[in-house]
């Protein structure tokens, strides 16, 4: 019994539910293999497991002479040049004797030293091959491997080449900032496969040449006979020969969170049986939880189940095919390398921005050519600088830095929602997800067992509703035949009391409330106690409402987490008894009873019995619980009654519940209670009732699933559990609706074995992929990811075990559970610290917010670039006395606007809050990405307007103002007496573009709403909401304010203005700039009004509502919604 005071995973039962569901998951049993050796009994954990088939096969005793599998002496013949037979890949379908024959080994004596050495040379060491960790150089390369950085590097080189050290230095600083910020964000290196190596056992007990030896696990070979005891790590994949109460922990591999009982006596007929159901095998890396066993090594190293997972992790999507020629392989590797360097691999946003950077680079070269052509290819110093200046104007130098900072801020926000980001780009990627493939236990469910229902003849049906803290007996409420019970004043009937006594006394668990400190006790006394049934808090803040009993009067309960020790099944039953004031310790203190005997749970009888002496009544009470099909034959009821019990149990099992039978009888004092009398004591029992437990969905899961569906995201459940349980939970949380039949008609629900047998062509021809896949294996999840990718869908995959790592790595966004294995966390891009599905929905919402904001600041940055290009290209016509083109903006002004003014405004836009309808829209198109038609058209309209107004401001001052028309000489390189007009015109242009960019930062907050009505839900008077709108984003407000204030010293500070920025102080020219701002706002507002009037793009809907979204996806609109 271990402490169970935090959310233990309880998914993935080790046996099928009661009733006939098992037939499709467990291969039919054939002739048993070897009987158990006669070791002293070792009892496994005391809890009834999930029920096996109702009518289990009964194998009569077999005399050793009938089966040579009882310690057979197979004479080995040497086989040095052959690997083990292919049939060993389905060793679960063979008896241990057949496996020994395949491997040429004598089970009693093991391999000889020479044979073991020969096989070691043939098969190699029993080790999982490690992988090269991600070096610091690779992290650095990842930061440089994007087209925009490469373009900046080339621009920097050109600037140094023409001795423009100021511009080159600024660009160098930008590049270094981008690399440093990105490097720090991605510093954590991936060591996924190396984590697998920690699962291997250092040494093993092996029979060789008739003697038990301890050797290094790395030296194991197929055919070795291995002995295992409690606490040992299984060193390789084994076909078990015998066992005594052997249980192994396989959660890391199969998702089976409960210890798995080993059954070496049986063989299976299904070659494709799921890994978790091959109970006659033990798998490398699993730990012996109880008992002892002996097994034959069938595979080692990379051939084991863990090794296969390591192999899948080593594979990358860009690997060349095996049948490719050498030349094709070289070309594939070269092409993949070029893609990596150019940043053409990664998330959709990364790829889109890299392609965009290449486009800008081509455009920059084209514009430079235009500049050189306009000057008749007389590429002197001034012309070359002008050409580079135009090229620089095309490139948004600060884009990478702004994007990195925005993503980092998003990662911090997501951490508050219990989502830790390992790969920063995944934040943006998760916003475009179309499908979520989620595990069940602990993610969709609470990860702790709770009693759901009890059917007691003569009493009725007890149901536990709305439990938020499974360990807290005051959480939720209980109904009897649909009527809610007030348990504070409820007096149970004798039948119900017997039922509750049985589940409380036939129980070894302990459930304890939080204990208060002295200060908390004093505070508690001053407050009115709350009614636990009416509270709406989660497990971490649930008010304790455990009934005051003899054992709890001395302690004061406070807000906090209840603790429990014991097996999940027994804890669930104990909590139900505590709801009726029948805690086990309280009963022992209150009743005059004495513990007389205990018959622990045994895998052969599937039940547990305790006997108490009632000192007052003068008799013995026998309390029994266990699997229905095993207790059924011991009940003192008619055959017709047994049929009804079975039908009731099967009905509950079909709802995904784990069913136990509760029985009781009385014995006279002095009855022999010795171990040999167990069959007699457990016979002739009086049937009391059936009790069903399950792992309940998290309270917030149903709402989160619905949010996904409203947002156009399809949720799939991929679980290692049985179909019945999976379907029940899927219905509870809304993944399946009531139209899906229990018989699993169609493809909405499939087992992994059925799904794995389908070809890719068959899967692609399906109208939709299954929503629930039960009994999943690692390859099933990988196959699902591949199927989604072939449909051009973008998927999230969750997981917690080693078995989930390949799928996590191949999914677009792998999300590991915080309580999961190191391997899963290292293979993922995100980690959920609370293992909660609702946190994934928060991550999607944050991703969509980030995507929207990326569009906003991209729009802002590109508007500035378009305006500058227009200004500089047309500015080629502005000739000075020497017939040289005059810069309307100096190179430093361009860099200042791009890197300082625009950058902080863009960061502010990146911090915009999520739009209220962000989760009511379908996922954005991955083909289109951030560059939608609306963004492209808007940026050109805004950019052309801004460029034209900047050009007008320069022209008015340079040609229409006092002394206009004379552009001086040599005014591009510095100030002289002839440059007064040019420097004032340049300062006016700088002021104009700065003011326009400041206004644009607020205009692009929404692409169709007016600046004077950005938030329609605002209660401010019409037209006055602009004041609350500009203040709503504080960072953006202060960025605009700072940009406005800093503009004045740049214009007026001596030396700085003339020598650095190449402009000078202005006066009346401010009027020109402010008139341009008014014209600009009027033009933009007019364009937005046109979009709203004619329903163009985002102008179609003012604001999407939830009912609109639900109607779009075909969901029934709920009149009453749960509070979140």
Task: Write a short abstract of this structure.
Its EC number is 7.2.2.3. The protein is of the alpha+beta class.
CA-based gyration radius: 37 Å
Termini Cα gap: 36 Å
Total number of helices: 36
The tally of strands reads 26
Could you estimate the helical fraction of the residues in percent? 40-55%
What is the residue-mean pLDDT, rounded to a whole number? 81
Tertiary shape: elongated
Reported CATH architecture of the largest domain = Up-down Bundle
- What's the CATH topology label of the largest domain? Calcium-transporting ATPase, transmembrane domain
**What is the count of structural domains?**
4
What oligomeric state do the depicted chains represent? single chain
CATH homologous superfamily of the largest domain? Calcium-transporting ATPase, transmembrane domain
The amount of beta strand, in percent, is: 5-15%
Largest sheet: 9 strands, antiparallel
Uncertain spans? 1-84, 188-194, 523-558, 740-745, 1117-1124
Structural class: alpha+beta
Q: Largest sheet, order of strands side by side?
A: 13-12-11-10-20-19-18-17-16
CATH domain class name of the largest domain: Mainly Alpha
What this model shows, in words?
The chain is of the alpha+beta class and 1124 residues long. It contains 36 helices and 26 strands. It folds into four domains: 88-131 and 201-311, Calcium-transporting ATPase, cytoplasmic transduction domain A; 348-409 and 844-1110, Up-down Bundle (Calcium-transporting ATPase, transmembrane domain); 419-445 and 699-835, HAD superfamily/HAD-like (Rossmann fold, 3-Layer(aba) Sandwich), CATH 3.40.50; 450-512 and 563-694, Calcium-transporting ATPase, cytoplasmic domain N, CATH 3.40.1110. The strands form four sheets. A nine-stranded antiparallel beta sheet has the order 13-12-11-10-20-19-18-17-16. Strand 12 (477-480) and strand 13 form a beta hairpin. Helix 3 (136-144) packs across helix 5 (165-185), helix 4 packs antiparallel against helix 5 (165-185) and helix 14 (494-505) packs antiparallel against helix 16. It starts with 95 loop residues before the first helix and ends in an 11-residue tail after the last helix.
